[in-house]
Fold these 3 entries.
Entry 1:
Amino acid sequence: MPDVIRLSLAAFGTVTVLAVAHPALADTVEERRAKGAAVISKLNNGIPQNNLENMRREFPFLAEATEAYALGDVWSRPGLDDRTRQLAAVATFAAMGMTDLMTVHARYALNIGVTEDELKEIAYMITVPAGFPRAIVASQALARLFDERAQATCSVATCESAIAPTP
């Protein structure tokens, strides 16, 4: 059997085995996107996530990949609860110095019951692996978020208990 045919059959077999072994890979893109949309809806109090919606207009492939893979496949996996996932995301983005993304996930964390004090602990904790400059920048972004949420005026129809959705 020629090598090209053997390699093609091997690749097909690998994809087939992966699809059977990992149920998320067997889902259609639409099913994966629906899972991702459900994740956003839950984390953002039923409000569409503006960053994702803006990306959908300008960069549809990136938005689809984010929704289907990052949210539909990874975020929907069993094994960690939403609270743990959000704390991990906040810590990771803070340690990387990516405060815009850290703030998005900090909002989600607050929406699902994580406290401001717990988020402050994340800023303190990252001084060890990422250093004081990253922790200071993260703490400044969190302080802005806390201030924004404290000043937000919400109607009962859009949010409760002054928990504002992610813009």
Entry 2:
Amino acid sequence: MSTDDTPFTDADLTLLRRPLHGWFTTADGATPPQPRPVWFELADDGTIRLFSAADALKVRRLRRDPRASLVVAAPVEEREHWVAVTGHVTIHDDDAAAHALAARLAPRYWDMTDPVRQADLAAQADERQVLLVLHPERVRRYAY
């Protein structure tokens, strides 16, 4: 079933709270979209939070055009289910908040008992990061 309702359904919330990658796409006028897999968090206020290197292409594009989307899909071995969120993004030049989000999300995506992953996360602390907040304006979904 497919719908175009703005609020998240219970099924949406369940999917968005799972340790799945989201495919984040920025708009930039006539430039073709370039989706990237990202870690994300659904915040209590209904926004979606991500972090990024401050000099990343997606951040430069968002500074020119704040429109973006995030698509999250169930793994292939499950029945088809996806949620697509579109809206505008605010960029927060808050390095500490971005690093805190990365640290909070790391155990969701990585085995943090692995010394290699611990070093990967520590290396991110040396990069200047920004916090990206996607403000949902439209939510589309499909589920069997």
Entry 3:
Amino acid sequence: MDLPQLLLVGLVLLLGVLGVLVPGVPGTWLVWAGLLWWALHERSAPAWTLLVAATALLLVVQVVKWLLPPRRLHGVAVTPRMAVYAGTGAVLGFVLVPVLGAVPGFVGGIYLCERLRLGTRGEAWASTRAVMRAAGTSVLVELFACLVVLGAWVGVVAAG
């Protein structure tokens, strides 16, 4: 696969990861479609192995999301700004502390947003807990899985 096409696949994967944070955007399916596109053009054992593993992981995530309590956004101040902070925190955490850093980064991003909005530490933690109970857990599960797939793809492309 030539470099421009590889960059387009990377862009689709990145848009999918960002799409997880935007309600109504099928971020997980964009990540999977980008990986499928790459595997169909790459036609190597690592590409197909990654596609099969990512498909299994993303299907498990859909089941886990279904089993989690439904999102209850009434009375919780979830804003686009908070999604940006949470997403940025998750990506930074994923890069700084490989893979596992996404979880504290996500929660830390929500906390930072709430701390700036509310001012006090106690109110910010209470709001962060409310957001995580209302919608944050399902978004975090989906975002974490997409980041793992993106990281694995980068690793396979860099190794190949």
